[in-house]
Every structure is written in C-alpha cells, then in structure tokens.
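seq:
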Amino acid sequence: MTSQKFAKQPKAFLARVFIGLLIGLFVIAISQEWFFKFDLLKNIELLTIDFRYQQKYNRASVKHNLAEKSDVVIVEISDRDLEALPEPFPFPRSYYAHVIENLNRAGAKVIVLDITFEASKDKFGDSIFQETLSKYTNIVLAAKVQAGAESEKYSVRKTERYYNNYFYRPGRYIGVVNVYKDRDDVCRSYFPMLDVNGFLTPSLAFATMNCMYKYKPEICPAVEKDYFVYKGLDIPRYQGTTFLLSFYGPVRTFPYYEFSKVIDDSSFKTKDEIVYETELNLFDDALSQKFKNKIVVIGSTMAEERDFHNIPLYIEEAGKRNYLMHGIEIHATAIQNILDGNFIFPADPSIELAIIMIFAVFGFLALLLLRQLHFKYVWLLEIVILGAVLVFLGLLFEVSIVLFMKENILLNIISPSLSIIFAYIGSTVYQYMKERQQKTFIKNMFGHYVSPTVVNELITNPEKATLGGDRRELTVFFSDIADFTSISEKYHHRPEQVVNLLNEYFDEMAAIIFKYDGTLDKYEGDAMVAFWGAPIPQTDHALRACYAAIEMQKRLETMRTKWKKESKPEIYVRIGINTGVMIVGNIGGQKRFNYTVIGDSVNLAARLETANKQYKSKIMISEFTYNLVKEKIIARELDLIQVQGKEEPVKVYEVLTTYKVGLTARQQQALDLYHEALQLYRERKWEEALAYMQQVQALDETCYAAKIYIERASLYRIAPPPSDWNGVFVMTTK
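struct:
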C-alpha cells in the first residue's frame, strides 16, 4: 500500500510540473506573438516602461544638474525671438551665420543646426551662410526623411548622395533628424542611422559625434547581434533598429538659451536697440562662457513648427502633466547619452524566457501548496492566495524599477506577470477539477453506505471529517428483522439467497431513509441504525423519522406479496425511535472512524425496538418523540415501561399512521375506546378497563396491546397490585 502511494506521488508532482511548463509556454506564445498578435500586451508593457522612467526620475536623490555639467546646450528659436529680431521668421540665413560666428568665438566644440534649409531664401543671406559653412568644420546640418521613407534595412547603394538640405555639400556633416516613436506615439528610443535615398546616413546625434571626433561624415555605427558598435562603444539595440534613450529629466532639463541673445553682439541690432537707439549687446562675456567647449544644438521650439513629441517623463504645469519634449532636446539627450556611455540595456530575451518558465512552474506549484492550507471559510483562503499573488506582482514590479534605476536594465514585466497570473488561474482550475474528481470519488464510494446529505456536507466542509463530535438533540432509529435467525437457518445451505434477500431489503429501506434526508449510520447483521438532525440541522427530525418508519412498513407489505410469489421468506420488521440529546460526529481511530451517534438516548431507541416483541407492535416511539409529532402522527399509547439500564420509566407509543392518511371509522372508534380503557386501567378500575379492552379487541383484532391489558386487568382483578403501584412495566431483557 505504501509503495503504491509512493509511486503515485512522483507522478502527481511531475504532472503538476508539466502543467506549469504548459502555462509558461502559453505565456511565451502570446507575449512573443508566436501564434497570434497581442498588441494590448505590448501597449501595457510600454506603460510600465514609462512608469519606470518616471520613478527613476522621481526617486533620484540628486536630480541631474545639466545646467552645470551638460556637454550639450540648446539655443532655441521661440516666440520671444520673433519679437526681439527685426526680420520675420523664417529668419534670413545671415542670422544663422552670425550666430555660428559668435558661438565659435565663444569656443563651442560643435554647432548642430536642427533646421532643414530646404530651399534658397535670399541670395545675399544664403551667400553669407554658405561662406560661414565653408569657413568652419564644426557644423552639423540636418536632413529629414520624408514620412514612409524610413527603412530598417541598412543597405548602401553607390549613387550620388542627396539630402533635402540646400546647403549640403559632400564632405559636410549632416544627420537625420527624424524622431522614432513607438506604437503609442511616445518617443522612448532613437535611430542611430537611416537609409536615405540608398545611402546609410547617421542620425543627428551620431553626425555630431563624427564632427566632434573628426571622423568621416558618413560613418555610422556597425550593427552587431545585440549592439550597435560605434568606434569601440557598444550601444544596446532595442527592437532591432533603435536604442533606448536614458532621459535626464522632463522637458527643459538641458540648459536653454534664446537665439536673440546669442546673436546680439556689438555688430547686430535687435528691435529694441533700433527703437531705443541704445546698445544692449546681450551676448556678453558671461553668456559666451556658457558655450565654451560645449556642443550647441540650435532649433525651433515654436508651437507652429510642431517639433515636440511625447516622452515617458512629465512635468507638472498649471496642475496638468506635460509629457511633451522639443525635438532639439531629444537629440541633445541622445548626444549626451553617447558622451556619457549612459545606455539602457534590454534584458537578454533568453533570460526573460527562463524567468517566465520559472515563474509559471514554481508559481503554479507554490499556489497549489498554498491551497492545501485549511481555513474555516474557503473565500478567506482565496483572498489570502490572491493577496500573495498581488504581493509577488508588486515585488516583481519593484525589482524591475530598481534594476532600471540602479543598473539601467530594462526587464519586461508583463510576460513574467502573466505567468504568475496564469499560474494562479491554472491552480484555481486544477484545484477545482481535483475537488470535482474527489467529490465524484467520495459520492461513488460512500453514497451506497451513508446519506447523500452526509456526503455533500463532508465535501462542502471537509473539516467535519475530523475526529470529534457535538452534543445535539436528534432522533435515532433502530430496526430489526423479526425471527431472522430461523430464516437464516432455513436457508443455511443457500446463504447467497439470504444475502440477496437482505440486499434487496436494505436497498429499499435505505432509499426511504435517504428520501427523508436521514443519515444511515450502519448495518449490524439484519439491523439498521439511522438518525435525523445531523449533519444538516433539521427542526422536524422526529417527524421525518416517523414518516420514514411508516413508509417502510407500507413498502414491506408490498414486498412481502412479491416475496411470497417468489417463494421467499416474508420479512417483518420492528422499529424503535427515540428523540433526545446525544453525541454525533466522527468517532473511532485516526485510520478508521464512522459518522455515528452515541449516548443514552441512542440506547433507549435500541431498547424500544426490542420492546416491540412484548406488544407485537411494528413501530414504537418514546414520549419524547411523540410530543414532537403528535400533531401529525396518529399513535396508540402502549405503556409506561422501564427499560433495562434505566431507572426512570418512559411512556411509549405505537405509531399507526399519519393524520393526513387517517384511520377508518372502526379503527378510530377502537383507538378512542382503547385510550379510555387505558385510563381506567391506571385508575385501578379493573372491571371497566377489562370491558373496554374487550370492545377494543372486537373492533380491532390487530390491537395486541388490548389483549395484554385484558390479561393484566384480569390478573389484577383477582390479585390487585400494591398501593404504590404506578403502572410501570419493567423490562427484564434488552
């Protein structure tokens, strides 16, 4: 037996591990889009990435002070500059030439123009700007790829380079300014390069690096398996064609300076200088120092230019969250990331797959283990398990935030979270199916022996299957076959016929017990023990027991007719019923116990079943039962008896039928006379009692009690009992 149990345990464990593996594979399938596409999961993952960006910024003990430490500064063209400068926007190209001159005098390393000069504006200004571009080699121009022209294929074709920038010449530094956005229109990553008209062209950030390090203008990062490699610098790839930006903060984290102030030296007149005929010269030594050894990015922040994009970080402005960042600052962020080597590393996909599988398997096993805990209320256990799942998901989310903050590692958390969620769902379904299997097993095995009510109660409340009991008022039922010994002896050469007869009898009687929601306690040879009122409380347990006893006797009448035709013995049954306080519960040893009843009230019912012999009655109930059913049951008071082992006498009754069925007029007359005669008997009026009992016997020949009282009255008429006689009949046998 032990070896069989041991053999089953590894199989069950392996089956659970297999289910966990299936859960993991399912999660991988939907997260990796092996079979079908789940955009919702990717969108949720993007939201979690944004949350980690914001948490990294919010939790930083010291915010990035880029005003002092940044290698990149921004010169913005805003609405204030339109008001300050004499010429309208778009400005003459001579303005940009003037700014470049000022920045170079200030010692700027690289000047990046995030402006696409798509056509000629005026010959004079264009000529000045062209001369300035030829004069300096630290200038980066911008090119923009038309919508839909981006390509993820890094291929080069030998054709003449062409960019939509009027001032581009071969040998000049130029970078693509297109901003990459995810499916939710948020900029989180950056193109290192793009294919423009067949030529692989660096983005603005890498064109800036080429210019700063004096590399050839067309140099682009090499594409390796997991990295872009740029002059020995490994940049982790994200979604194949981009790398993640490591934002230093929300919009205007980088230092911003006004275009109109940078251009305003002694040789340039602003509107105010012209109107007020005074020299302001805002580009003084203090301001020029801000650009020394800096990479300066020049671009527009005007609303009508629409060069602003959603990013993961926000800043509170007038009670609202502003997620927008100007394109020039996105390029500045990419440049600063490259200079700092500050990159975000997507977790290795193989590690993520391993995490999914581990969480699925161990999560499923752990949750099944938790489900073995015993709580009084099942819903409370489910709350505990659900709470554990939520705590684990919270810890997973917190770990992902810490990794993002401390190590710049981006771990996808939706797929691992799904593995835990599906492990929870899987454990719930598994436990449900297992419980259903157990319920079916219990019903199939024990439904033949105990009441379905007991089975269902134990299934619903397994804690009731423990040793122990309760004191309750119940009604207990004992039945026995009259003269069964002689029947057995008659068929001792054919014992199988006796067994078949008993099985048929027990099947019919048990069905009636179950019909009235009784609990079939046990079979003892040819005897049956049942009780009502437990495990399911019943306020009418006494009435149910009586109804069952009456129906049993009626059913036996029909069965006896059948058995007679089959030449089988005709079975007659005696039934004893008592109501009282008794102990009910699972009683026995740890390995074997029964749901049963014990106590004096139980013993009394057994004595009443035996007492039927004295009165030739079929159903005898105690006064305790009668008092609970007298409004529904017609009964004949039999006697006041003292059973063996009891000192107090008990009044007993013979159950005849129900008020619903009723008696014939003759039977009712006999019953009324009987009760009058019994009262006369107890009053020692022997002659009157004798006469009445004789009338009862004449009216109802089945009333054997009348014959008993005729014999007693006749005896007492000759030899009266002592003066302390109380009418009690003392039983000397069990």
